[in-house]
């Protein structure tokens, strides 16, 4: 082999070593860095998807919270934290105005602790689903004599007989929950043949704030 050929072989070896050294010292670390960056990006994208799912779940819960708050407001209007009798009388006056009767008297007795009805095992349908064994809904353990108060009330109204019955229906379906325990009406007099008096006795409730 001539000297020129040896020089050519040597030059090719030197070039190969330079390329190999460049790959080992420069290109290879960069490839590893790119691979690590890709892995980090993939992990970040996966974590972002988890965050998006959590955010969507929180958004659904937040949207439902407004509905729950609205329902709670309705329940609190039906059973307030205090007797709130002036507001209740205002509701009665509004119902009286709609039904064309006159509230002639309103009275309330002392508040008393609520006492749940004692189940009667001998009552029919005592095994019906969702009952307490007596055919009626089982009382909630959250409702106790300490936080649930009953206030007896009596309402006297005057007006046409149909109007008095309409007022009675309005009271039973009013915003404030009232359980009617008795109702009676008098006979019309000769002077007012189209006017009767009605006596309504019932109970309104108070749920003390347990929080």
Automatic annotation (TrEMBL):
The keyword Transmembrane helix applies. The keyword Transferase does not apply. It comes from Cryobacterium serini. The chain crosses the membrane at residues 6-28. GO terms for biological process: type IV pilus assembly; type IV pilus-dependent motility. Residues 41-68 form a coiled coil. InterPro entries: PilO, Transl_elong_EF1B/ribsomal_bS6. This is Type 4a pilus biogenesis protein PilO. Keywords: Coiled coil, Membrane, Transmembrane, Transmembrane helix. It comes from the Bacteria. Pfam families: PilO.
């Amino acid at each position: 082999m001539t000297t020129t050929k040896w020089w050519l072989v040597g030059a090719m070896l030197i070039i190969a070593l330079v390329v190999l050294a460049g790959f080992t010292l420069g290109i290879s670390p960069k490839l590893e860095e790119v691979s690590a960056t890709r892995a980090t990006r993939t992990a970040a994208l996966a974590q972002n998807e988890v965050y998006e799912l959590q955010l969507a779940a929180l958004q659904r819960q937040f949207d439902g919270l407004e509905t729950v708050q609205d329902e709670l407001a309705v329940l609190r209007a039906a059973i307030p934290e205090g007797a709130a009798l002036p507001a209740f009388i205002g509701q009665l006056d509004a119902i009286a105005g709609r039904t064309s009767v006159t509230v002639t008297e309103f009275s309330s007795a002392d508040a008393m602790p609520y006492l749940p009805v004692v189940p009667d095992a001998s009552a029919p349908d005592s095994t019906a689903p969702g009952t307490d064994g007596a055919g009626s809904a089982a009382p909630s353990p959250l409702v106790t004599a300490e936080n649930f108060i009953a206030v007896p009330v009596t309402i006297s109204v005057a007006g046409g007989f149909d109007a008095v019955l309409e007022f009675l229906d309005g009271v039973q379906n009013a915003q404030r929950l009232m359980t009617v325990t008795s109702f009676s009406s008098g006979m019309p007099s000769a002077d007012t043949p189209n006017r009767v008096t009605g006596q309504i006795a019932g109970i309104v409730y108070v749920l003390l704030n347990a929080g």
